[in-house]
Amino acid sequence: MDPVDKFVHAWAKQQIASGGYLPPFTSMQLEARKHESGGNLTQKQEDIIRWCSSALYAGGADTTVSVMRLFFLLMSLYPNVQKRAQAEIDEVVGQDRLPNIGDRDDLPYTNALVKEIVRWAPPAPLGLPHRVTTDDEYMGYRIPEGATNFDPTRYLSDTPQPDPRKFVFGFGRRVCPGAQFAEDSVFFNISRILSTFDISKSVGEDGMGVEPKVEFTSTVTSHVKPFPCRIVLRRGSAGERYLDSASLSG
């Protein structure tokens, strides 16, 4: 049995036995199957529940983490994008609370930002990137060597570009079953981070910003390689008050 399987499954069973637990996936499935079978689960039933729960855990610990690490890199590289998303969140949600999933439909630019992240560098590489290898000029536009563009507004025009979520999660019978969970999780985390923190380039000894290298691993799930950045708490934000209260209670 995989160590992750053991840990997740044993933890859920312990929470049920304690009586003071929030009903996560594993706990709900164990209780439902016990009710159906009259109190006892077969080994096969336990195995299926364990494999399903560990698959959810592994997905969140790999692909979602890949997207979140890339988010921090891109926000340090594109501060104007970050400021626009923060302005939208401040206007719609305010600073008395943190954003939640219920705010998603009212935050179109933040939603577009999430789309652009997964388009810019999908966690599961879908093919070779397209960019010029030397300086070029096309229809009056100068395109520098290696140029890339990160622009969430491409999904907000009257003729928006194709939604990358239609292909980054796969197709047909092999589409990712956790697509909705992943989208909600990424939006939830990104919106709350933007509400609470400012992300910028790391500062060198000379007081100047350190340009991070945009490099990725060549693994099945693509991860941006370690990079420096600066994360500062936004004063007056709801997140600041939550962190202060957590520190006092701790």
Describe the structure.
The chain has 250 residues and is mainly alpha-helical. The protein has a domain at 78-249: Cytochrome P450 (Cytochrome p450, Orthogonal Bundle). It contains 8 helices and 4 strands. The strands form 2 sheets. The chain has a two-stranded antiparallel ribbon. It has a two-stranded antiparallel ribbon with strand order 3-4. Helix 1 (3-18) crosses helix 3 (43-77), helix 2 packs antiparallel against helix 3 (43-77) and helix 3 (43-77) packs across helix 7 (179-196). The longest helix is centred in the first third of the chain and has 35 residues, at 43-77. The radius of gyration is 22 Å and the shape is globular. The two termini are 37 Å apart. InterPro entries: Cyt_P450, Cyt_P450_CS, Cyt_P450_E_grp-I, Cyt_P450_sf, Cytochrome_P450_fung. Heme binds at residue 176. GO terms for molecular function: heme binding; iron ion binding; monooxygenase activity; oxidoreductase activity, acting on paired donors, with incorporation or reduction of molecular oxygen.
